[in-house]
Write a structure and sequence with these properties.
The chain is mostly helical. The chain is built from 4 helices and no strands.
Length: 128
């Protein structure tokens, strides 16, 4: 199922909820819970599709599908570093304030993914 299919599947249930919406607190709470459940299911289905695409990429015989994500990651990282380092740095070096939160988020994500991922891998090996 693609994104369009997911959205199409959401339209019917959301429309039913809106059609049956009344003004009491209990009914509003029920509608909110139903909407949350529908959106959570749609998100799970979308994640399954992403996983299926990644698995198909890794099973491909071609070099490009197997390596597109690492190559894209390397390219975007290099471009971000180059742009952030040279942005307005004629005559002196400073990193603009706008880039600092991005660097923080990237570092936390990368280190977190690496160390948590390695810990999980080691735990799985030990448990076997």
């Amino acid at each position: 199922m693609n994104l369009l299919g997911t959205i199409t599947n959401l339209i019917g249930p959301v429309g039913e909820i809106v059609d049956n919406l009344h003004t009491s607190k209990e009914e509003k709470l029920q509608a909110k819970e139903r909407l949350t459940a529908i959106l959570a299911t749609a998100e799970q289905e979308a994640q399954k599709e992403v996983t299926a695409r990644w698995q198909a990429d890794t099973q491909s015989d071609s070099w490009l599908p197997k390596n597109i994500r690492p190559v894209t990651l390397a390219f975007l990282t290099i471009m971000f570093v180059v742009i952030s380092m040279f942005d307005g740095n004629i005559g002196g070096f400073t990193v603009s304030e706008e880039y600092i939160p991005v660097y923080e988020m990237l570092l936390m994500t990368v280190y977190g993914a690496y160390f948590v991922g390695r810990t999980v891998e080691k735990a799985k090996k030990i448990s076997k």
